[in-house]
Description:
Blueprint: H1 6-18, H2 21-46, H3 52-64
Helix pairs in contact: 2-3
Amino acid sequence: MTDTTDVAQAIQDNIRRRMTPAERLRLAFEMSALTKGLALAGIRTRHPAWTDAECRRELLRYAFLPYSLPPDLP
């Protein structure tokens, strides 16, 4: 399932094919950082009283589900 039209997808694919490996890696890092920021913002919205550490821990919990986080993780 995608929200991108076939024409838009073809344009994106063409752009990515012309990118160097370093540019594609940078894009992946930027997309990862954006996703992390959006997820943290959602957690903070749902839990406004939580500290930054609690929000980051919850983000890790989401990332590593279904596994439990170590109890001594700050």
